[in-house]
Every structure is written in structure tokens, then in C-alpha cells.
Amino acid sequence: MMSGSPIQDSAVVTHDAPASIYVARSLAGALDALGEYGTAGAPFAGGTWIMRSPIRHQPLKTHYVAIGRLPELTAVRISSDAIEIGATITHAALAAALAGLPEFAGLAAAAGHSANPAIRAMATIGGNLATSEFAAADCVPALLCLDADVEISDRRGREHLSLTDFLKIRSTLAPGRLVTRIILPRTERKTAHVRLPLRRAGDYPVAIVSLSVSLDATSRVQAARIAVGSVEATARRWPRLEAALLGRPLDATAVARTATELTDEFVGRDSVDAPAWYRVSVLPGLVRRAAIAALGS
Amino acid sequence: MSDVSATMDLRRRDAADKLRGRTRYTIDRYLPGMLHAAVLRATVPSGRIVRLDTSRAARIPGVRAIVTATDAPGMIGIGIADHPLFARDVIRYDGEPLAAVAAVTLAQAQAALAAIEVEIEPLPAILTMADALAPDATLVHPDWRSYEVLLEGGARGGNVAWEATVVRGDVDAAFARPDVEIVESCFRVGRQNHVAFEPRAVVASYEDGRFHIETSTQVPWSIRNATARLLGVPASQVRVTVPPVGGGFGLKFDLAVEPFAALLARASGRPVRLVNSREEEMLTCLFRENADIRIRSAVTREGDIVGREAVVLMDCGAYGGEQIFLTTMTAHTLGGNYKLENVRMVSRAVYTNTTPNGAFRCCNGVYNTFALERHTDEIASRIGMDPLAFRRRNVLGDKDLGATGQVFESNVLGPMLDRMDTLRDATTLPPARSDGRLHGRATTVGTWFVFVGPSAATVNMNADGTVTLVTSGVEIGSGSMMQSLPQIVASTLGIAPEHVIVRAADTDAAGYDVGVGGGRTTVSLGAASLSAAQEVRTKLLKVAADMIEAAPDDLVMRDGRIEIAGAPGSGRTVAEVATRAQTVGGPVSGTGAFTGAGVPAMPGCVAGHFIDAIDIPVFAVHDCEVAVDPETGHVEVLSYRVVQDVGRALNPRAIHGQIQGGVVQGLGYALHEEVTIGDNGRVCQNGFETYRVPLALDVVPVEINLYEGAPSIGPLGTKGAGEVPILNVGAAVACAVANATGKRVQALPLTPPRVLELLLDRKPELTLPHIADKWADNLIRPH
Amino acid sequence: MGFSLTVNGDRLSCAADPATPLVDILREEMHLTGAKPVCREGFCGACMVLVDGEPTPSCLVPAALADGREIHTVEGLAPHGALNRIQTALEASDAVQCGMCFPGMVVSLTHLLTARPDASRDDIRAALTGNICRCTGYERIVEATLLALATR
């Protein structure tokens, strides 16, 4: 009979150093640390994506800078013409902060129904925007139809760019640069966020329609923003459908019919959870629901 | 022989510690000096191992032992010994073990795995049963003829690991009758993962020349015997003990990680802990198998089934395992529910280069019931008969013959259907919602059985009036070990069930047992425990009779006392009698044993079967109402009702808990839980994000009615109640969705994309070209 | 460098690597095996603990961010070996089967009883979106929660 043989301890070889986590005490400190670490470092906010690296077989970065509890980044500032959202506010906290503001019902729904309760209390808005691999992010389409601007900071200063532009550059954001705030202009509008998980709740949605409309005195659509999430790798607006809404009353059935004619502009993504065609096929129905929800908001 | 009822809503004694986080499952056991192990697994579905060099890995700090194929010479299996512990030269599935390492820390063990040098020459892979059955298909086991046959009788050949047939009557003549409609249906189901919350886990040590394996299993004796066989040691050198098990559902009805830890413990001289990662659990689960089913029936316009034939293909993955046994079950599941005059069925376990499948709650029954009930609805629709009326006319009744010629006793399904009518009619339906959804309802029937088989029990009477029940039973969560067994023993001896101490499984302490599964715990272990307790009772009554000066026949045991019938307060406490007995003749104990009754089948009509007839049939009637969203394909279950044949309900509340849980697991199978295999041969769903089990918002409270009184050879008239609740959930949901949508539901699970696909007619109807049109052409061995 | 955590009222130090998940520190360093690492992705809730009073999947909290926090595990929810309100209700309802999910269920529901004393049946079901049970089909757990809410 063969038998496995015991092995005596041999000379110690140093193995890979574990990831370091620097808990920043101030935004300036965090930006300094990120600047110093360069490509070896990354921000760590809620941790709900980074801590799941093992299942994606992705190695951890060498250095993380924990930014989740910086007071500068966890505030929501509401003024009469804009709302400024700190990047590390959690989904749960954002939903709570928006509770009394009907014009942000869509964003509140996005933040308040993503994932599950405990994850909503950890995952941050900045993380949701910055994680380019996460196609099913709820807040991205919700913010796209609110004309959000993103503030990016680094050691040298900060700049603003539209969320649409940010989404184009986020996967190549230079090391040391951090999403610090999201700025939303305030206007009179009706918004809605319709997400389609495969179960009733708890899943990442396989398709999302976020909608924002301003109606004139005769209830005709004056301005419309419609964003589609999870259907393609990155959420984006649906300009042809937006244009088709203008100048007419918001009629859910009619909007859905128009959407059916325009879905061919989306090339769905195939993934383990849902095939491409499905994500596209459900869009008219989600548009219809979004219109009904917006009218009721 | 007892003076008090065994029926009660006894609470579980293990609940409080489970609620406080104190219960130590196998994953919670950390021994002094313990090493951590990890398994190197293949990353191709098919290949030849050119080189496997562990020398660099052995030099990684902390590594204490490495074992490979040369350390495990044996082969195991059911029916045929086709399965080695490690891939030897040939890799047959993605995830197949190549080597195992034990180190001081898990990180060191994983680092060592990465340092093992492996060179593999990829070979073409057979990933589907259609590929496996193609003419000139590559063989998953080119040497299949050389394997040791453990049970004679199954036909084998090529990629068919096992074939079981049943033929009764003249099916050709029935199909040729001028007065019949021929209805043919095809079905396909995917795999289901048990998602036991405790992964397969073991802590093994090697003490005094014997292995001690502490493991999360349903089958301590199978682990003992299979580990010994793989390692090439006598089975008596392996001791298996089982802490509380964190979920089984059939996953732990087979060997998994135990031999790796045992080998590493022997090699290192230290205890070794091996716990599967969740990803390993997701990718190498012994899934409920995927299956392809074709069923044809010849039915008169009056609604009589005069002939039936079927072909069932079950994917066993790279090794035969449980599916070889399960080929037997088709005769009793797809061949169940309805009386049949002429029938022929073939059930084939097919090798593919995919991760091996295994046992899962109502193995084989769940999808065959789906197929049979959908087929039944298609028959009813074809002949223009109400589906419930058709069922009533055809369900098995007293003296009816089952597929294998077994004679069924008593009318059970008929009255159960009546009971379901009453249950359904008693509920006021919610007002119809004008939300644009499609509504449908269905009532389905199902036939299952109790997997009886050998069990042993010992009851030791303690002088303090308590008893210790020693069996190889395992508490997997179903509660049988915490509720029904102590209830049976306590009622026999007239003591409180809390006074029955239940010993956790230890193969050194208790006799052979088939394992906890197949609805057999209350029945087989219960019968053994009952007879052990009765022996103790007889002995105590004899001693008590001397003490009280009364005839044993005049004595009763109740409330912890032995006293003269009709004279409460007379006599002595059980403790006093036990103490006296111990002094007079030594400690009192009793032993009991049980196995199946062996119900006869009709001679000559089955081939390749492990059991010819079912000793204890179990029936179920399910009713379900659904709403289907035509825009998204989402199916919402609006109500669910179960009438279940339980023989006798010893603990009705516990059974209700099993039914709610089993139905919800079935809803997962019917609606959410999908396993797909990629072109690389790997399971695509590697975690909880993509493998979706039902959540609290996805379920409904199940309305339950327990049908008591059907005949059973189980102790006190019991039948297994925990396994069967999942049986016809897939069937009920599928029939309801078909009724709601008017579409031909041929596959499970009914995920939103699959339902929308049906609604939009995006896909042609399912056909199964790898099943030959002529039934006999599907057989390796003519029957 | 090490970290300092208060676990069930005890101040404990830990020498784990900074990115080590809290659940592993609790189980392997502190021998508190109540929290179960089941999915390690925040979906199942079996490793739920209270971090500064908030239900948190301990698989997603790295050691460095547990530093200085007040942690309560299922072992620390009821003093002196008693059962708290939700544990009592779950026990009385015969809700437990295999038991692996219950440490997390109990943590989430203990929090729910105080945070949402007026929770409805549907609120409870929604609150359990991140607590999976594979055995029970949830019904008894929801019933027990309603019972606990009613017996405050």
C-alpha cells in the first residue's frame, strides 16, 4: 500500500504580503495616500465589491485607502437649486435622505431597493458609479436621468464632469483620482425607477428603466430623460425615446408602444443570469411601468 | 405495545442552541494541532495527465502532507466501481481532484496547490447526453468493461453507465388498437444544487492505527465503507462520527471530502480539516441530475390508459454514482400515479464529461412527476376530458397494478383528490386582479416511496429513569432524530421524551444503517428503535411484576411509572424498577433491527433494477395557482395546497414544517434554480448571485392537509414525511403555467426568460432526436 | 500591527491581516463559531453580526475596518444563556431545522424588533431579503417574528 509521506518544515520563504488598508482620517489624507500608492492602490468604500474579489478570482490590490467614514464624503447637502451627495453615502442613507423629495422618487427607489437591506447599508453611491464591471448598478441610470454631475478629486484639486462623460472614462480613471461628490440640479419633475430582478427582490436587476419627465401646464412632456441600465455593459440614455415623448401627454401605453419600435438600438449583454434578447425584450414593459409610476409620483 | 400515544407536537431539543449559535457543526470543529487541507482540481473537462509534480509544493512553508492518486488505490460506485478518488492519468470532469495538501494554515495549503506542477493534454469532451449517445461518440470510460461489477443485472455499454427496463403486457398491441389516441410528450429538466448551508466538511485524524472521521454526512456507514475501499484498508479501521449536519437534502448521501482528509491525517500524523469552499460546492455539487424524457401513451376516448412507453435519460456526469440506482426509480415514478395495463420503460444513466450528479430529495421523482403530470394534462386536452376527471378515473387504487406488477393496497389517491377538492373549495379566492397577468391553476398527483433498508438501534435503560437511544442516525435538520425517534421510544416506555437521550451517530457505537434520507429515518430507524424499546419494556415489566407482585400483563407504563392498569399511583417509578433490575440482573438494554418487507413484483418484468417494487408507497396531491406576467415572464405563485399521505403523523407540526420547506425548495426547482454548463465543461453558476434559491418574498404559506390511515409497514403506521413534499411542485407549477399561458411547457425551471420565450414563441418545441423513435431501439439489451 | 475589537462586550485584540474578513477573525481567532461563512458574498446573511448596532454581513468587513468597532454576534444577543425575544418565539414556533441560517436570522430579526416595532408581514419578508433559509420555506420564521412583535 502506498502512503502519503509526512513533510518536514523547510526553510521559510516569504509569501506575498497581504493587502494593506489605510484608514484615512480626512479627505486630504485619503487623496494623499491614493496619490502616493498610484496604481498599487485603490479606494475602499463600502467593500461590498472588493471583498467579493475571491469569487471573481481577482487578486486584491496591494494597498487600499478606506474612505467609508470620512465626514466630508458622507453628507447630503440639499439646497433650493441642487443636491450634493457625498460619494460614500450608503444606498440606505441616500434613500432616507431623499424620502421627502418627490422629484427624486426614482433615485430613492433605486437606492432603496438595490441588493438587500444589509448591503444597502454598506454599499456606497460612489462605489456604484465607479465600479465599471458592475453593469447592473441601480443608481447609475437613476442619476443619468437627473443630469448628475460627478466631482472627481485628487491631491491637486477637483473637477466636475457630467455623469455621462464620467462613465466613458471611469475604467481608465487615473490612479489617485477619487469620486467625491455627485451633484444633482433641482427642477420640478416626475421620476421613476423600475428594476427587474429575476426573483421578487434580492437580485441584481437584469434590466432597469429610469425615467424623469417635466410636464407643462397642459400635462404635456416638456423635458424627458430615460436611462436604461443592466441591458448593456454600461447604462445609457435612450435619446430617441426621449425625443418621441416631447410635446405629448405622458401616456404609458403609447410610450411602451414607441419603446417597442425603438428597442433595436440596444444590444443586450449575455450573462449567466439572463440572455441578451431577454433584457431587450422586457424594456417596453418596464418603460410602461416607469411611466405609470412617474405619473403617480 | 404502548400505553400512551406517541403523537405530540414535541419541540426540538436542538433549537435553543442553534438559535444561540452554540451548535458545533463539522465546520465549527477546530482541534489542537489541526492542519488545513485543500484539493487541487482539474480545470479541463477531459484530458490526459502528462505530469503531476508535487516536489515544489512540498517545499512551501507550513505544508505537512501531500497525497495523490497513488495513495488511494481503490474504486467505488453503486452497481459498478467506476470512480477513483483522484483522477488517474485521465481527467473526466472539470473539478476532478488531482491532489490534496495539508498545511498549517489554509493559505499555505492553497499556496501549495498553486505550486503543484501539472501538465495536461486536453482531450475532446462529451458535455451533453446527445453527444454521449451519438454514434461513434468518444467514450468517457473507454475501459468500462474492466470495472468491477457490484450488482449484476444492469445492461451497460459505451457511454451508457447503466440501463434499467420494465416491460409488462403487450404495448405494441395496445398502441395498435383502433380506438386509441397516441399522445407523445418530450421534456427536459436541468440540474438542481442542494445549497446545503453547511458545505461538505470533515475533520479526520489517525489514532491508534485507525481513522477517525468526523464529517457532515447523511450516511456514516457508507462513508466508513467507501473510504476504506478507496484507501485499500479494512472497513473496521475507519470510525465515522457525525456532529449536527447543516443541511443535507441528499447532497450528503454520498462520499465527498472524507478520504482526502483521512489520507492527509495519516500522512501528517495530525488532525486535518477539509471544508469545501462555496465555489467548490457550486461547481462540484452532486446535483440533482438533468434529464431528457419522452413518454407516449395510448389512451381511449373514454379516458383509459391502455398502453404507455417511455425513455428516460439521466445524466450521471463523469461517474455513475447515484444515477445508476436511480434508473430503478423511473418504473415507480414515471410509472406511478396511474394504473397501467401495458407498459414499457427504459431508464438510462449516461456518462458525460461533467461533474458527477447525485441524490436530491425525491431523486428522479421530481422530474418524472413533472413529465408525467404535464403528459397527463396533454392527454386530457387531446381527448377533451377534464384533467381532474381523467386523474380520478386513472389513479392507482386498491388492488391496482403498478408498472412492475406490484399490487397496490387500499384507495389512497382517490380520497386524497377528494380531500384536495374540499381544501380548495374552502378557500375564498382573491378577487380577480385586472393587472393584465395570465392566471392558471393545476392539481397534480405524485407517487413516491420510503427507501427502507437496514437499520439498527440499541436502547440502554439508565438507573435514573432515562434511556439512551444509540443508532447511526444523523440529525440533518429534518428533526426525525429530535422528535419522532424519542417520541416512539418515550411512548413505548411511558417516559417523557426529554428523558430519551439520543446518541449522535458513531459507527463504533451503533450497528449498520443505510443512512438518513429517502424518507426512511422515522420508518427504518424508528422501527429498530421501537423494537429495541419494546425489549426494554418487556424486561422492565418482568422486574416490576416481581416488585409490585402483579402479572406483567396487568401493568402499564405511563408518566414515568410502571403501575397496575386502572390504578394510578400504584406501582413504582421507572427509575426504581430500572435500579432494581440493574442490581438483580445487570443493566437493562434492548436491541432492534429493521429492513424492508420485500413486496413482490411480477416476475420477469424488470431488468437492471435495484428494487423491484416499493415497500411503502407515499402519495401526494398538490394544487397551485399562478399568475404569469406576459411582459416579463415572471411567474408568481398565488396559492399552494398539499394533501400528503403520511401514514400516521407522529408530530403534525414538525411535518407541516417539512412540507412548507420542501414545497419552497420545489418552487426553487420549478421557477428559479438553474444550472448551466459552459462550453468549457464548467458549471456557470458559481455562487449565490447567479444560483437563485427562493427568498422570503418569493414564497407563499402552504395550506396543508395530512392524510392519515393509508397502510404502511412503518412503526406505528408511519411513513416518511420529510422527503416527499418536493415531489410534485415542479409538476404543479408547470401545469398551472401551461394552463395560464396556453403554451406547451416542456422544460424546467420556468425562469422569466424561459417563460417569455414560450409566450413569444421564440423557440421551436423541444424534440429529443437522441431518443430513437422506436422504443426498442433505445435499448442496449433487448427486453 | 494588530486590531482591537469589542466583541460581545469583551475588548479583544486580533493579529489578522488587514483584509481578513471579520467572520474569519470571529470564528478562528475568537472561537465564536456562531456566525457562519456560507456564501461569503453578502447574499445569504448567515454571517450577520451587529457592527455598532447595525446588521452587517461579517464576510464583507475587513479586519482593518472592524478595528475599534463594537460587535455583537449571535452568541452575545441574550445574556446568561437565556433566549431573547425573537429566539424565544422561533423556539416556540418550531421554526428551526438545520439551523445554519439562524445565527444570521436571529441577528437581523433582533435588530428588526427594535428598529421596526410596527413591521407587517410583508415588511418582515422584505427585511429578510438578505437572509436565506434553505430548509424552512420561511413561513415559520415570519410567523415567529410576528409573534415576537406581538409579545413585546
- Kindly identify the CATH topology of one domain in chain A: Enolase-like, domain 1
Task: Write down the overall mean pLDDT of chain A.
Answer: 94
CATH topology label of the largest domain in chain C: Ubiquitin-like (UB roll)
Q: Which structural class do you get from the secondary structure elements of chain A?
A: alpha+beta
Greatest interface and its participating residue counts: B-C, 53 and 54 residues
Runs of chain C with pLDDT <50, length 5+?
Answer: none
Oligomeric description of these chains: heterotrimer
User: What is the element string of chain A, with H for helices and E for strands?
Assistant: EHEHEEEHHHHHEEHEEEEEHHHH
Q: Supply the CATH architecture of one domain in chain A.
A: 2-Layer Sandwich
% residues in beta strands of chain A: 15-25%
The CATH superfamily of one domain in chain A is CO dehydrogenase flavoprotein, C-terminal domain
Rg of chain A, rounded, reads 22 Å
Strand count of chain C = 5
The biggest sheet of chain C, with number of strands, parallel, antiparallel or mixed sense and barrel status, is: 5 strands, mixed
Total number of helices of chain A = 12
Keywords for this entry:
heterotrimer; A: about 300 residues; alpha+beta; Uridine Diphospho-n-acetylenolpyruvylglucosamine Reductase, domain 2; Enolase-like, domain 1; five-stranded antiparallel β-sheet; four-stranded antiparallel β-sheet; 12 strands; about 30% helix; globular; B: about 775 residues; Aldehyde Oxidoreductase, domain 4; Aldehyde Oxidoreductase, domain 3; 3 domains; eight-stranded mixed β-sheet; seven-stranded mixed β-sheet; about 25% strand
Q: Can you tell me about this structure?
A:
The complex is a heterotrimer of chains A (297), B (783) and C (152). Chain A is of the alpha+beta class. Among the domains of chain A are: 20-66, Uridine Diphospho-n-acetylenolpyruvylglucosamine Reductase, domain 2 (2-Layer Sandwich); 194-297, CO dehydrogenase flavoprotein, C-terminal domain (Enolase-like, domain 1, 2-Layer Sandwich), CATH 3.30.390.50. Helix content of chain A is 31%, strand content 23%. Chain A has helices at 27-37, 53-56, 91-97, 105-113, 117-120, 125-130, 139-144, 163-169, 239-245, 252-262, 276-281, 283-296; strands at 20-23, 41-44, 63-66, 76-78, 82-86, 149-154, 157-162, 178-185, 190-196, 207-215, 221-229, 236-237. In chain A, the strands form three sheets. Chain A has a five-stranded antiparallel β-sheet. In chain A, strands 9-10-11-12 form a four-stranded antiparallel β-sheet. Chain A has a three-stranded parallel β-sheet with strand order 1-3-2, covered by helices on one side. The radius of gyration of chain A is 22 Å and the shape is globular. Chain B has three domains: 15-22 and 453-594, 2-Layer Sandwich (Aldehyde Oxidoreductase, domain 4), CATH 3.30.365.10; 31-123 and 200-275, Aldehyde Oxidoreductase, domain 3 (Alpha-Beta Complex), CATH 3.90.1170.50; 291-451 and 601-759, Aldehyde Oxidoreductase, domain 4 (2-Layer Sandwich). In chain B, α14 (484-493) links the parallel β23 (467-471) and β24 (500-503). The longest helix of chain B has 28 residues, at 521-548. The radius of gyration of chain B is 27 Å and the shape is globular. The mean pLDDT of chain C is 96. Chain C starts with a strand and ends with a helix. Classes of the chains: A alpha+beta (297), B alpha+beta (783), C alpha+beta (152). At the B-C interface, α1 and α17 of B face α3, α4, α5 and α6 of C.
